[in-house]
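Readers of this paper often ask what the protein records in our data store actually look like. The remainder of this section carries one protein's record, kept here as part of the documentation.

:::
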Amino acid sequence: MNNFRNFYIYEETEPETIYVDYIPTSWKDVDRYIKALEKTPFFASNEKLLKRLSDAERASENTQRANTEKTYDRVHMFFKEHGIKKNILDYGAGLGIAARKYNTHSFEPNAVDWKPTMSKISQIKGPYDGIVCLNVLNVLPLEVRNEAVTKIGSVLGMKGAAVIMVRSDSDVNKSNPLIVFGKDGKGGRITMGSKTAQYQKGFDIKELVEYVSMLLNGYYVIPFRPPNMEMRLSNPAVLICKQQPKF
């Protein structure tokens, strides 16, 4: 393990977690680390862990697979209350349940058993009156995450509104980590669900506001906290507008 420790690993814990002093910026980075870790004694000598790590090689495909329909309902309730009823983009539409329910434009590069409006980021043109992006940024490495936020900002209409929600730090920390990138997990982690592995990066609301504001300089980026409690979201979320929001 010593040779590989020089290759950024600073800690390993038995039996299931490796901590890596490195922050991946792309899926290529994540996959490179997974393949390198497979060759280390920590995993190579344990068939069960090696299988789990092999499953993690598909982490880039296992993006949004959960049914977040109720959360979408809250955002669309907010949009409707503020006159945004059409021309809405679901960015990272996952299973497509909400996109089909609300008949929105949809972007999903890893769609399974349904056909989104767009599967390539270059196809997203806009402008859109409303954009919803739920539990997407937290499954993207840094470069892909930056691209997503920048694209959302560029296709948002002048009088439109975008809502981005992510998983919280505390929520991600409860999951079963296989690989943790960066000290305190700031680079995200490969977590294991019941069947598949995912890359996850948790946020608190302060970090989320600062991160989006940095990429969308000049936009209004504020915590999404509607006065109507029925519209509030359980995880960190921001409201993005090009003009000062009147919501």
Summary: The chain has two domains: 2-57+170-199, 69-168+203-241. The chain has nine helices and eleven strands. The chain has a mean pLDDT of 81.
